[in-house]
Amino acid sequence: MKHIAARPWLTTGLLWCMAAAIATFNLGPLIGSTGVRAVFSLPSAGDSQAVLLHYSVLPRLMMSCVCGFALGLSGVLFQHVLRNPLASPSTLGVEAGAQLALGVAMLWFPALLGWSRDTATAFGGFAAMAVVFAVAWRFKFQPIAVILTGLVMGLYCTAIVTLLTLMNDHYLSGLFVWGGGSLNQNDWRSVVGLFPKVVGCTVLALLLVRQLSVLTLGEAAQGLGVKLQFVRAAALFVAVALTTFTVSAVGVIGFLGLAAPVIARAIGARRINTRLIVAPLVGAALLIIVDQIMQIYTAKTGSYVPTGAATALIGVPVLLFVMLKRGGSLQTAVQSGSSPVASSRPLMLIVTLAGLVLAVAMVAIFVGRGVDGSWISSTGATLKSLLPWRLPRLVAATSAGIMLALAGSLLQRLTGNAMASPEVLGVSAGTAFGLLCILFVVSEPTISHRLIGGFLGAGSVLAILFAMSRAAHSGNQFLMFGVSLGAFLTALISVVLASGDPRALSLISWMAGSTYGVSSAMSLTISALAIVGIITVMLLVRPLQQFALGDLSAHSHGVDVKKLQIVILAVAALLTAMATLIVGPLSFVGLMAPHLAQRLGLTRGLPHLMGSALCGALLMATADFIGRTAHFPWQLPTGLVATLLGGPVFALLLIRGRRLSKLH
Fold first, then answer.
1. pLDDT reading at 1 higher than 60
2. Number of domains present in the structure of the chain
3. How far apart are CA 486 and CA 472, in angstroms?
4. Which residue of 300, 331, 526, 647 has the smallest Cβ count within 10 Å?
5. Residue 203 to residue 199: CA distance in whole angstroms
6. CA–CA gap between residue 542 and residue 605 (Å, rounded)
7. Residues 422 and 275 placed together within one structural domain of the fold
8. Nearest-CA neighbor of 569 among 474, 488, 642, 434?
């Protein structure tokens, strides 16, 4: 493998030879029946095979090449500018914004889709980009600010799309097909429209090569006359433009933006000028291979699989293989933005947060909506009859929020990566896939069946991750394993959802994070596990603080770093698995709660962990109350409401934290 890593061009050439061979195998019979001349000439109207070749097959092949190239290039720009191996075209929420715009157009502006679907999706993508850039500009495009804002934007748009789908499933069920990515073409117009845009963005990216090379020096680059804010903004704009143009044309095929740059680095493309060429070529070759294989599969079986989902199914094993072979080269530094100011009274803040959680819990128990929809305060016999419904779901939601927040805090402290969150491990996706399997195996699954399926799915993911952890050379690489495995399972779920099977569509409600069916026994179980989780995390505080000082310092204090990593990852994964079974895989709280605690001033050790847990509990308790009463008599999923609620709160605290950092 070493001689291959030293020659990225050779490996890229071999990948293209493979793509050419598969394309020849798939298209050979059709070209043979029409003649090679049909490839270069307009077909006659009576020759159906030539028409198919000229207006469908060849445009699709060219679209695969152009889209793969564009996504690979955008991924390189994201990962280099943000200096994070987890960055990808979806980091800025562009794909989610485009999908939201398409859903809105389908519901309220269908005429716009008849005129130009690209316009609607491009508007959504650039709108998401504009929001992220507006916030990131205040932080001079510091990588940590861009990453966090983009993740919030993506999760927020995804939550709204899920909510719209739940309320209008008959109209928006087809959105999953588009979300899976489709390269089907009926003529050359899409290719002709996309190609010059990609060429223009590529030229702009190449013009930035010198500045991007100096960008690795960080703030020291300003001494060389490089305007960091301008370079970051320009590179990110090019990356987002490439993603938006591609998503507008073919839908969401975002995994290539993550995989192609990592593969390029793993095969030896160390310099940015080399990666800017190798990664797009790798992305184009991978997408051609995947799409040609999917065409062969569809021809043999008659089943349609979205190309975007299939890209993850085939690309993930390739990504995992190169990571296992060249793990040490994948670690990338993460620049942090301005550190939040530590509070001088952390105990008072913790007590205040605990008081807020208690106050929200009291409101959730005593306040509700009457039969006529009016607000009422329930007491006495009425409260006694309602308590078995309100209390279990409140306890479950609060406990799940605590566990997700603790899991997110552990991951972010262990890896030093602000993007680390419970869903990154892929445990949530494993739980969802386990539940999906149960829906197809058991005709009328009970809660026990769902729990068994979820545990089996989460357990399988944990077993695979721990087996891979032996080859991990860094926390970031372990997160890459989790991202890849999660993408693989999410792709499988997308394939099943795209089939339109009603059993699969019933999973959407759970994925949104509903606590409607939580029983008393289940709420007691999850609350007990939350308490155990708090105690366990408290025992890990001191080793975590020593671990933060470096491996040598930790070893000198008797800390076994490798065992500590495995224990912390196991605790975080188990907390995520149980919480996911209750509130679904939208673990937005696990990402945001630790940052909310930091922005409030709880930045150190135990106060930060306790503050994170209380922030998670507060978000989920509030979300449960809003979900139960806002759209009465219908129920809004708690996990989804938590996402919609947490986004603005986090944005306000992020901006407030920026102002405070200027004052000190």
1. no
2. 2
3. 17
4. 300
5. 6
6. 8
7. no
8. 474
Tokens of 482: 């989790």
Do 309 and 353 fall within a single domain?
Answer: no
Q: How far apart are the first and last CA of the chain?
A: 51
Q: What is this structure's pTM?
A: 0.73
Name the CA dihedral angle for 360, 362, 363, 369, rounded to a multiple of 10 degrees.
Answer: 140
| Tokens coding 13 | 């050439």
* Residue 93 and residue 151 in contact, taking contact as beta carbons nearer than 8 Å: yes
Q: In this structure, are 190 and 256 located in the same domain?
A: yes
Whether 380 and 505 share a structural domain = yes
User: Confidence band (pLDDT; 50, 70, 90) for 653?
Assistant: low
pLDDT in tens, 184-234: 888 898 899 899 999 999 999 999 888 888 776 665 556 656 677 788 888
Stated as kind and residue range, the H or E segment containing 377 is strand 375-377
On the 0-12 / 13-18 / 19+ scale of CB atoms within 10 A, 234 is: buried
pLDDT at 64: 93
Residue 534 has which token pair?
Answer: 């708090």
**Sequence-separated (6 or more) residues with CB below 8 Å from residue 286:** 15, 68, 256, 259, 260, 311, 314, 315, 318
pLDDT at 17: 95
Q: What is the pLDDT of residues 600-641, one digit of tens each?
A: 888 888 898 999 999 999 989 998 898 888 877 777 777 778
**Residue 292 and residue 405 in one domain:** no
Peptide bond into 633 cis (omega under 30): yes
Determine the structural domain holding residue 585 and report its residue range.
Answer: 346-661
Final residue before a domain boundary, out of 325, 360, 385: 325
In a domain, 137, yes or no: no
Give domain status of residue 311, yes or no: yes
pLDDT average, residue stretch 235-251:
85
**CA–CA dist 136, 177 (Å, integer):** 32
Are 409 and 317 in a shared domain?
A: no
648 located within any domain: yes
Is the CB of residue 297 less than 8 Å from the CB of residue 303?
Answer: yes
Residues 509 and 623 in one domain: yes
| 397, pLDDT greater than 70 | yes
Is there a domain that residue 154 lies in? no
* 362 shares its domain with 258: no
Cα distance between residue 352 and residue 463, in whole Å: 40
Task: Provide the pLDDT confidence category of residue 535 given band limits of 50, 70 and 90.
Answer: very high
CATH number of 630's domain:
1.10.3470.10
